[in-house]
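Pilot study result, target chain (78 residues):
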Amino acid sequence: MSKNSSIRIHKSKDVYEYMKYYGGLLMDKIYDVIVLGAAAKHMSFAKEEWVKVIETTVPPKTIAKNVEAFEAGYNMGV
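Predicted structure:
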């Protein structure tokens, strides 16, 4: 998986590959955001509200990757 590729996650194997791509300490944090995205789809808050929360609570340099991880989890189809 190239660092410039768009992330499309549909199966748990893809989640593993996505996390392996980030590796190290960041992997645990990215996994949490992927799971949050998957769970958020089943909650009463709008997707945009979740993204706003992510944008205002994570360090500025990590916003894009956190939103990308959230979107990946949200679009998993679970």
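One observation from the pilot: The chain has a mean pLDDT of 77. A full batch analysis is planned for the follow-on phase.
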